[in-house]
Amino acid sequence: MAKIGIYGSSFDPITNVHLWTASTIAHRCKLNKVIFLPCSSNRTDKTMKTADEHRWNMIKLAIADNPKFTANDYELHQNAWEIYTYYTMEHFKKEYPEDELFFIMGADLLVDIANGEWKFAEELIANNKFIVMARDGIDMLKTISHSPLLRNHDDGTRFHLIDKGLAMEISSSYIREEFSRGGEPRYLLPESCYEYIKSHSLYQ
């Protein structure tokens, strides 16, 4: 049985911190595979700056040399009203029925779930396992203990909290802004992605 992490994000663009985070989580949590899952531009709660095609191509370029990394375009092909993390995890459980799956997320999303901001939150938490990355100023244990939904499903294996060493931040928005202002964010993202952005005049 393999251990697989599902790593969803806009990846607009993918950065070196995305890759470093995925690598660190794979090492610490003994994951056999990390699936990079770009979210669709159809989503109603996010606005992408770049076409799905370009984000997808950059992810493929960025992960090409790591055998533990793979990309999946499942959400890119879903209708807006079908894009919920619960549905996504159900899809992957059917795709990998023999394996142990984890949804990778930041502590800020854990807070959102605790506050009732996610659709199908009860089903999602009850039926899945999570790797949660620390975010500045968020007490993950307190977030779980103060939420009836989270604490009632906290069986000791539901939430794998990573609270040290993942605080490094290079935001995709910072990189986009640097490109738009004629800056030089070259070493904040993979060289192949940097060249792709330049050749396709993205984020201008």
UniProtKB/TrEMBL annotation:
Q: What's the Enzyme Commission number for this chain? A: 2.7.7.18
Which molecular function terms from Gene Ontology are attached?
nicotinate-nucleotide adenylyltransferase activity
**For the Cytidyltransferase-like domain, which residue ranges apply?**
6-177
Q: In which pathway does it act?
A: Cofactor biosynthesis; NAD(+) biosynthesis; deamido-NAD(+) from nicotinate D-ribonucleotide: step 1/1
Keywords in alphabetical order, please. Answer: ATP-binding, NAD, Nucleotide-binding, Nucleotidyltransferase, Pyridine nucleotide biosynthesis, Transferase
Which reactions does this protein catalyse? Answer: nicotinate beta-D-ribonucleotide + ATP + H(+) = deamido-NAD(+) + diphosphate
Q: What class of enzyme is it?
A: transferase
Q: Which SUPFAM superfamilies match?
A: Nucleotidylyl transferase
**Family designation:** Belongs to the NadD family.
NCBIfam families assigned to the protein according to its UniProt record, in alphabetical order: nicotinate (nicotinamide) nucleotide adenylyltransferase, PRK00071.1-3
The entry's function note states: Catalyzes the reversible adenylation of nicotinate mononucleotide (NaMN) to nicotinic acid adenine dinucleotide (NaAD).
Tell me what this protein is called: Probable nicotinate-nucleotide adenylyltransferase
Q: Which organism is it from?
A: Scopulibacillus daqui
